Structure prediction request, 554 residues.
Amino acid sequence: MATDVEIAQQFTPKPITEVTKMLNISADDVNPYGRDIAKIALKALSKPQTRKGRLILVSATTPTPSGEGKTTTTIGLGQAFTQLNESVCLALREPSLGPCLGMKGGATGGGYSQIMPADRINLHFTGDFHAITSANNLLSAAIDNHIYQGNDLSIDPRQIVWRRVMDMNDRSLRKIVLGLGGKMQGIPREGGFDITAASEVMAMLCLACDAKDLKQRLDRTLIGYTYDGEPIVAKQLKITGAMMALLRDALEPNLVQSFEGTPAFVHGGPFANIAHGCNSIIATKMAMHHADWAITEAGFGFDLGAEKFFDIKCRIADIDPDVVVLVTTVRALKMHGGNHQDNLVAQDLEAVRRGLANLDKHIESVALFNKHAVVALNRFTTDTDAEINLIRQRCIELGVSFAETRHHAEGGKGAIELAKVVMAAVDKSKAFIPLYQLEESVLEKVRVVSRAMYGADDVAFSKQAAKDLKNVEQLGLTHLPICIAKAPSSLSDDPLLHGRPRDFEVTVSSIQINAGAGFLVILTGNIMRMPGLPKHPSANNIELLDNGVITGLE
Prediction:
């Protein structure tokens, strides 16, 4: 089969104006970025909604290191709806440049189920990540400048919690010392960089419903403490107006199309292990506003991205998916059945059978939110019918829907079975039920999610986490929803435990207050907010050819 880049070169884009007409978006609300990308004005949401706006959430079982094709499945499903002459629109996250050039590679789907133009989307796109980086670092610069210029707010340099960001994997910047070089270079202090996808500005933009909402979130962002331990928020530095100016265009969602011309909003990109892992509320609502079927996804497995989709995003946006698609693969179930990740190709029915426990748990988790699961088996060429039949039979036993997909090789045609199964399943779900109530204690919220989503017996707080919790209580922020940061490769907080772990505790190492975004980040294990490059990064394979084509970005 041709590579993703070779397939992308076969793509003939529709003019973006044709794509906007498919969604009945007024020309007055379209700001073209070239021939095949546009930003859509927020005022388009204020116009009467003429579409049904049914929402499909795509999630997955616990993934292997290379992923199970969740984004590719989302795109293929959207293309299948288009082939069935249904009104449909996708809502996806923007790729982060760091992982694209690091270990993961591009994040625009694959094969004949890609969003286009893949190279532009994977690299600079419309500059949203640059705007978020700039706004984040403007606040960082303002903090250090305020201290240098006399420190009227009595900011304690030892208690600054706001960090700089950049959209690149660079482990050497995780912890740094600022202000060296003498009196004129600032006040020396410890600091560091996170990747842009981990910036709270990214989370705020993705959870904001409009510009006014975003401004309020920026204003209340906690940036540090005074020498007396009092909190300092961004509004006190009188800088959030300038941050809003930098974010003006980034707040508008980006419209592109799939390989087969299906409309797709691609907007925002918070990580799912350290943030809430969903595209912007604005993009999701825009897709629902302009199509009968809106298809979106949440990062990593259901236990991470989808839980946060329901308990954070759905609460804030007042949305409710009609059905959940749960993507899985034979190779993932083999890994959860005990096989090493280098031994997932040869037929192994016993490994698949053992790995079904992981699928079982995710199906149970979907039901906890009152939703019906549609299991989408993303078929690889090495899969056998016998292996797939094991998974199909388990779904029948559990009373959930099942469909085999071949969208990577066949595009929308390869996901038509899945599309028909999804349409038949939408009436089987009920209104979602959050896992916890906001008025519950932080400890109880963590306990509820850990038991329900991960299968833990209980939770334990480290000394640092207990100290952080006391601070949360003193600041009156216990009412916020929680965003648990943990390894995506396991249902537990131990990344090496595959399958369906049992008899374990989740250990909370610390708590980070994201008052602007409106949630508490509950950190477990060793979660990197600034990834590093692998020994052989994807960037080694990327070339710009004489004809302007970029190769190796897959």
